[in-house]
Amino acid sequence: MIVYLGVGSNLGNRKNNIEEGIRKINRLKNTKVLKQSSFIQTDPEGGPGGQPKFLNAALKISTNLSALKLLKRLKKIEKELGRTKAIRNGPRTIDLDILLYGDRMIRSKELIVPHPRMFDRDFVIKPLAEII
Ligand code: PH2
Ligand code: MG
Ligand code: MG
C-alpha cells in the first residue's frame, strides 16, 4: 500500500525529531520511506497561543501494515520521541498523521482517512504537493 504521512514538530530539536521519526518508520516491518518532502517552517494553526513555530514535512511510504496497525505504530514512535501532553493542537515533539492510505476511505472511531483537515492546511498540502 502507498501511504502519505504528514509530519510536524514544534518542540526541542525539530529537525532531529523528524529525522529520527523517519528512521523509526523505516524500521517498521515491511515498511519503507520512499520519498520525503523538504522541511518548511510554518506558523502554528489553532491550539494555545504563543507556541513555537512548526517544521512540517510530508512522506510517501510503502507498507504492508493495515491502516490501524500503522496508526498504532506511529503513535508508539510519537511516544518514543517524547510526545506527552494531549492538548488539542498543542505543542509536540512530533506528530505523525496518516493523510492518505492508498485510495481507501476510512471512517472508524480511531481513524479518519483522508485526513479530515488536510485540505484546509497549507502546512500539509504544500509539502504533500511536492512529492505526490
Ligand atoms: N498541527 C496541528 C495543529 N496546528 N500548525 C502547524 N503550523 N503545523 C502543524 O503540524 C500543526 C499545526 C495539529 O496536528
Ligand atoms: Mg496533526
Ligand atoms: Mg496527530
Pattern of helices and strands: EHEEEHEEEH
**Could you give the distance between the termini?**
14 Å
Q: Overall 3D geometry?
A: globular
CATH class wording: Alpha Beta
Quickly give the structural class. alpha+beta
Number of structurally distinct domains = 1
User: Mind telling me which CATH architecture this is?
Assistant: 2-Layer Sandwich
Query: What hetero molecules are bound to the protein chains?
Result: 2-amino-6-hydroxymethyl-7,8-dihydro-3H-pteridin-4-one, magnesium ion
The CATH topology name reads Alpha-Beta Plaits
For the sheet with most strands, the description reads: 5 strands, antiparallel
* Rg: 14 Å
Strand content: 25-35%
CATH homologous superfamily designation: 7,8-Dihydro-6-hydroxymethylpterin-pyrophosphokinase HPPK
List low-pLDDT spans.
none
Helix content: 25-40%
Brief synopsis:
This protein has 132 residues and is of the alpha+beta class. The protein is built from 3 helices and 7 strands.
Word description of this protein:
The protein is an alpha+beta fold. It has one domain: 7,8-Dihydro-6-hydroxymethylpterin-pyrophosphokinase HPPK (Alpha-Beta Plaits). 28% of the residues lie in helices and 29% in strands. It contains three helices and seven strands. Strands 1, 2, 3, 4 and 5 form a five-stranded antiparallel sheet that branches. Strands 6-7 form a two-stranded antiparallel sheet. A hairpin with a 4-residue loop joins strand 6 and strand 7. The two termini are 14 Å apart. 31% of the residues are buried. The mean pLDDT is 96. Bound molecules: 2-amino-6-hydroxymethyl-7,8-dihydro-3H-pteridin-4-one and magnesium ion (2 copies). One magnesium ion is lined by residues 95, 97.
